[in-house]
Structure formats: C-alpha cells, structure tokens
Amino acid sequence: TTTHQRPSKNENGKDEIFQREVNQVRMTERTNLKAPKESSNIRVGDDSRRNSSAARKPGVHKVLSLDMTQAPRDPRAIGQFGQPVDLPRSHDADVRKRWDEGQFNVYLSDQIPVDRAIPDTRPETCSKSLVHDDLPSASVIFCFVDEVWSTLLRSVHSVLNRSPPHLLKEIILVDDFSTRDYLKEPLDQYMSQFPKVRIIRLKERQGLIRARLAGAAVAKGDVLTFLDSHVECNVGWLEPLLERIYLDRKKVPCPVIEVISDKDMSYMLVDNFQRGIFKWPLVFGWSSVPDDVIKKNNLTVSDPIRCPVMAGGLFSIDKNYFYELGSYDPGLDVWGGENMEISFKIWMCGGEIEIIPCSRVGHIFRGQNPYKFPKDRQKTVERNLARVAEVWLDEYKDLFYGHGYHHLLDKKVIDIGNLTEQIELRKRLQCKSFKWYLENVYPDMDAPLVKAEGLVFNRGLRKCLTLQKGSLSFDICDLNKQNQHFNYTWMRHIQQQGLCVAPQVRKNGIVMTSCDNTKPELRWFHKNSNSAENLIAELVPNRMCLEAEPRGDLVRLGPCEPSSIFQKWQFTHYIVK
Ligand code: UD2
Ligand code: MN
C-alpha cells in the first residue's frame, strides 16, 4: 500500500481500520475541563507481563502543560486551534497548483501560523498524571527530503513550544539531500535563532532509514525521539514517553498519532484503544484492542497500549538500547519496512512497544509520497520487506511470500542483498522465535502455516494420493496412513515432509522432488471451495493439470479440462477459507 491510511477489508469482509478513525475536536468542548478524578500513576496495559519497573517509585512531578496550546499568539489567524479551514472556491486553482509540493494542501498550510494552537486532546487524567523529575533528556530527530517549509517549521515549533526545556537536549534536522533551495541557506538562517536546533546534510540521498541513523549517530541526548517532518506535537507529549523509558529502558513508547487533515489542515482526535498491527504480506494497519483484552486488564483510556508493530515514524527509544538492538538494518532503502523490522526486533529480543495515550502528536497522512524514489517504489518496499522476512519470520516467511510476492524469490528480478550481519545479530541477541512473537504479542493474529492439509482425494478414482518408496500413486483413503498426508502450503506446494509434487513436463509425468521456494514450476494453483477443484501447474509451459489416470492408479500431468472428474482434488481440511 502507499500509505498507512488505506482502508481495506479482511477476508471475512470485516472492516479493519487501516484508515485512522477520527473526530473533529471543537475547542469549546475542551475549554471547561472537568476536575479529573484522582489518578494513580500510569499502569501497565497487561498483567501477564513481568514488571521490571517494580523498583522505581511513582513519579512526583506533574506533566508540564506549557501554555502554547491554549494561548495562540494570533487568535484571529486561520487554522487556529486546529480548526478546519474552508477556503472559498476561488482558491481552488491555487490549492491544486501547489498540492504536489507535499501531496497535501500546501497553499493553505502556508497561511496558517507555524506556531498555531491545537486542542488538547489527551484523556482528562493525563494533565494530572505524575512523572519523575530526573527523566532522561531527549534528542528529537527529524529527517526530511524536500519537506514543505511551513510544515517543517510547524513541526519544529511544536517541539520547541511544547517540550519542557530541560528535557529537550536538541532537535536534529537531517536533510536527506533535498533539492529545494529554501531548505538550504534560508533554513540555516531561520534555525540559527534556536540554539537547540542542529542541521546535518547528507551528501547523497540515503532514504529515511539511513537518514535517521545519521541523526542518531550525532545525538547527545539519552533518548532518541524520531518524528516525521510534518507533525504537530501536542501539549505534554514528551514527558509521558520519557517516563516510560525511565521506568524500563527496554520500553519503546509511541505517541498516539492523530490526524492533521491533508485538505483543511484541521487537527483531529482519533479513537481510543487503537494499536498498530500488520496483515500479510506485512502491511501495517490500525485496529482496535480486542474487547476481552480491555476487560481482562481493566484498561482505561489513558493506560499504555501494547502494540504488536509501530507505525514507524514517531517513537522514543533509549539511545543505548537502540544500539544494543543493532539500530535499523542499514540495508533498508528509502522508505518502508523499517517499522516492521524494528518492531519484530524489539519484541523478539526482550523489549516492548507501547502506545501512550497521554502523548499525542498530529501527523499529515498523505495519499502518496511527495518525493521520488531513486528506484522503482514498489520494488524498493518489497525488497525491504523481504529482508525483514528473511531475518525475522522463520517458517512464517512463506506467508509473506505466499501473499503475492513470489517474484521476490527470483534473484534476477530483485536482489535483496546480504543478510549475514542481520542474521548474526539475531543470534547474538538470542532473540525469540517468530512463533513466540505471534503467540505472546499478537495472539489474535491468525497465521496458519499451511493453507490446507490432510488426504488428497481424487474425485474420479475416489482414492487418495499416496507416497510410496519415493513415488506417487493411489490407494484407498485412510487417515491413519501418514504417507497419505500432504500439506498445501503458502508457496502452493503439495508437500510431504521436505518433498514436493513436481511436474515432469516433457513426459507428462509427476515426480517428487526437494521443495524449493525459488522454483515456480513447483506451485499448484488450487481453489478452496466446498467441492473438489483442479490443481493447476500454471507456471509450466501451456499450463497443465494434475490428473489421475483412470485405469492404472497413476498420477500424471494432462491438459486442463474443467469437466474432467479425474482432475478434481480435495484436501481433508482447508485452513484458509
Ligand atoms: C510511515 C511513517 C514513516 C515511516 C514510513 C515507512 C508515520 C506517521 N510515518 O509513512 O515515518 O516509518 O511509514 O518507512 O508513522 N524521508 C526522508 N528520505 C526519504 C524518504 C522520506 O528523509 O528518502 C522522510 C520524509 O520527509 C518524512 C519521513 O522520512 O519526514 C517519513 O516519510 P513519509 O512521511 O513519506 O512516510 P509516511 O508518513 O507515509
Ligand atoms: Mn509522514
């Protein structure tokens, strides 16, 4: 997908919230804050976890609420308080003309103050929650390529204005080889008024992953906080993130990412209890925390939410811990996949990812990337994901490849590069398996290792495939016979142990051969339905079908004939509906 906000339906037709569910916030609703009930310190969102922070005492200081949010400099300016701006139709042409500069309403953004107020969208208890007074300091890192001037400035101002000065070590702007002139001298000049802001320039386009690494390499704070360059940090956003790391340095807290409209620039509140998840083939999305988890853990709207994967752009991490984890795989290019990589790495190697509802940051979600990819966009992202799959997914990587990325297995099409160091790292850190991750971190994810299994029944012969002494034949169906059990895998292999049913094209025969993901001819296309269906070798010349020879109990390859019952096959169990 292009961005994190695409709506999609899952297999059951149920809506998954790949688009953030948002509510427009009216400032008036928030001006008379009711007195919040006495709040305890933030609780951990799941009782099944060890509490490594037991030794730490609860915090003693209130989250600082600097006044910028409620008191804008120019209350009459448009877009003030994060309100939507409805420009008169006469501006349509201007809006359209400048849209592509950032893939959002750049024309409007340029007219909104760079230090505008936005509504305090935190749950009520947040302003009363306590944090420690000796929190670690943060280096905030923005990397950008050709970011729009007004959004870049608004991002920086929101950090300067809404972070307690003693906790903000510095802001590092990493220019990923932008081409626009205003991002050169004018930016240097503008930022020179803020001693905390540093700019580093990359000599060639590195992509956001290596750009973030360049920023991290020069950071002096205890904690790295990564942000996209078109955000607005809300009041009190930083302290709750640092507090979590203070309590446990292996926690990786993320703010709630709220939505700044790409059209009217309004700041919108998102629904509570949202967490980051993925679907195959490693597509990020948002979904609600399951009700039973909320009930079982008595979760309130301000409790941290355990998060299987992070969106990627906005999070804090203890700097030393970031490097202990091997930072990012530097072999990831330009954009995409790094959020999966760091998420799996954190969970499988002993850390935790949380969304902290008291920390909120608005982000402009865009329909398209506004910058060019040095190489093909889709291939770049797929290649990144394949690196992640190869290193972290174990036997589950077939689910990734099986959901439409077969061509990645062809080295001539995409070279995913050397993975030795990443694999070594995983060993050195003694990280847990992906199976452990699925069971413990994302148990509501359905990830069956095969699509179908059991006996392979032929409707014409009314017998089952049987593997005897290395070759295939038929026998009376018998669930007790292990040599009649086959798996139909994500790679579309018909497999028993490590052996795969393979077409022998020239002889129209069938042999058993070692399974190999890179061999397309081993894939059999098969519809899962209530009746028996063909098994089609689609990737051999002329597309052939698996069939039973009616008289001799032999299995062979034949031209596909939709009506032939000797070409109809059924597995005992279809796991993937
Ligand atoms: C999301 C993340 C983003 C990143 C991406 C996957 C959020 C809100 N955003 O997509 O941070 O994890 O998924 O990789 O979670 N940039 C560069 N060099 C490049 C490309 C991008 O510096 O070659 C900068 C860009 O200017 C921006 C940041 O990296 O500040 C993220 O890029 P994006 O905003 O296009 O990504 P987004 O929000 O669609
Ligand atoms: Mn972004």
Automatic annotation (TrEMBL):
What EC number(s) is this enzyme filed under? 2.4.1.-
Q: Where is the composition biased (Basic and acidic residues)?
A: 8-19, 27-37
Q: Where is this region: Disordered?
A: 1-63
Q: Which domain of life is it from?
A: Eukaryota
State whether keyword Glycosyltransferase applies.
yes
Source organism phylogeny:
Eukaryota, Metazoa, Chordata, Craniata, Vertebrata
Q: Where in the numbering of this chain does the Ricin B lectin domain appear?
A: 454-569
Protein name per UniProt? Polypeptide N-acetylgalactosaminyltransferase
Any GO molecular function: polypeptide N-acetylgalactosaminyltransferase activity
Q: Quote the pathway field.
A: Protein modification; protein glycosylation
- Source gene? GALNT5
Q: Which organism is it from?
A: Nothobranchius furzeri (Turquoise killifish)
Name the enzyme's class: transferase
